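Dear U.,

For the methods section draft, I wanted the exact inputs and outputs in one place so we can describe them consistently. I've listed the two proteins in the order they'll appear in the manuscript figures. Please don't edit the token lines directly; just add comments below if something needs changing.

First protein:
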Amino acid sequence: MTRTYVCSMVLIAAFSGCIAEDVDETTSVVSQHFINMQGTELQGMNLQGASLGGMAMQGFRFDTATFAGAPLSNLRVERGELVGETGSTTLRGTSLTGAHVFAAMRNLAAGTSALVEYRVTAIAAEDGQYDPTHTGNTYLYSLEQLVSETGDWMPACPADADRRTAAIPLTAIWDEKGARVESSSMFTFSCTTGVVAKCYRWGYRPWITGYGDVVSTHWACTRMARADYCGIGVSSTRNNTQINLWDALPTPIEAHGTTPVGMLFEAGWDTGGAVCLSHSRWLLDDLLILVALCPNRLVPPGLLGTVCDTVPQALGYSANAKIFNEAYLRLGLLGL
């Protein structure tokens, strides 16, 4: 059993995207490592319950976790793994199954906040196919959220392409504008359907060394993976849009390789969003919407236009460009 794809259009950009469906064939594009799927959500969490309407995830608290009804002290994230202590016992790996953790939520418009309880129902080692740097020893955490109105526990993550409902822990948090924020009090649980976890699975594990600035590359990757061109936390893509990505690290984690047939250079990215867009990318009339969103960052072709068709050109706009991508172009079609 392999897969084929049903194609859709990007919301603003009109780049095609495809959703996998199982069919009997002898070949499959998912075996080609250079095809990656974009997404719209940062953490990918399902917030369930009427009281959470309009709330956004701020982060999971280190200081409120419990295990077997007792406080879980010195909770921390070490290389993609939760570690905590009860008395003189250190718990890590699958031994933290059953732990309860609490996430801080906030509603900027209403000025309200909430603390939401989650429980870890299962823990499994991460699949080796998502470890291109061979740094290993990370885990997937199945989470359930307590719905305060009903007292029910509901899955916190939607199923991913592997049909798993799991999350990955990382240090730091991401704010409502998609900015990475260092924190000593909170961490991120990203569902594997969220771009924070997707970029981790593409090899950009923020803690690894020997490759260069992987922290910034992971952050830039989350901008690219959401098509957050303006760097303001607004996604301009649909889930499962196909792209080809590579990085500018001294020791690349993802190299460019061969351009997939039909794909064209799209953009260079830094931690603030796209630093420039290709000529083909600027051809689309609906990009006027994009220009209105970030007039001080992206400028259409012209004397001062932010236009790039190659990596060197992108680096000319920003030496801090960390990651680059190609995508399919659908001329004459608006992403409606």
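Second protein (the one for the lower panel):
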Amino acid sequence: MWLNQPGNKTKTMNNLNLEEQLKKFANSERKRTNKSFFKTGKGEYGEGDEFLGVCVPDNRKVAGKNVDANFTYLQQNIKSKFHEVRLCVVLILVEKNKIALKNKDKKVQKQIVNFYLRNLKYVNNWDLVDSSAPHILGQAILDKIKTKNILDDLIKSRNMWKRRVGIIATLQFIKTGEIKSTLQLSKKLLSDEEDLMHKAIGWMLRESWKKDSEAVENFLVENYENLPRTTLRYAIERLEESKRKKFLKGIFS
């Protein structure tokens, strides 16, 4: 395989590190937009994060050109202070995982998910989490490379991004029609104080509703008193309008 083998030549764009590659697509206006959009001000969830000013489509282009990068190269880059560089690394991991799945290579899948878990402290904003957790960790659990116990550990973390990884990873289960795990984790997270977690839980409940609307509606009714308002609004977005309004008022008949 192409991962960390002796003599392996990493195929990268002009052999530049990811930061240098991404700078070719950077612009100052995008940098200002990203700093505002990802809440980098004092006391905000992205406080202190730095940006090059690269849009996601361009980031994906760079990731695609580096899909053969080895773990040593990725380890060097995932520690970057720049948001887009860290995002590029997780996008590369996702692409590597797709190839491993296609080749039915669980050994490589295991290498990828282990690398991902070792470096979770760098997966530290919602876009990094959402673009990677289902495809890497969620898939690894589905393929029995990891167990679901890891999700319980993650949602107990003091680190919000780890908690978000724990719930967002279940999106991969939902796609197969398995929503039980999502409901169980959601219930444990209802007391979470972070708005970004309220949104994440609501999103997963909304996706679960597409697979089993009755089960999700029952969950919402049973836990109504403890549901953050944001979670409820996200979860019922697809309900018929009159029913949605009743849910917001706590009317279920």
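Candidate sentences for the figure legend, describing the second protein: The mean pLDDT is 92. Residues 1-106 form one domain.

Thanks,
Y.
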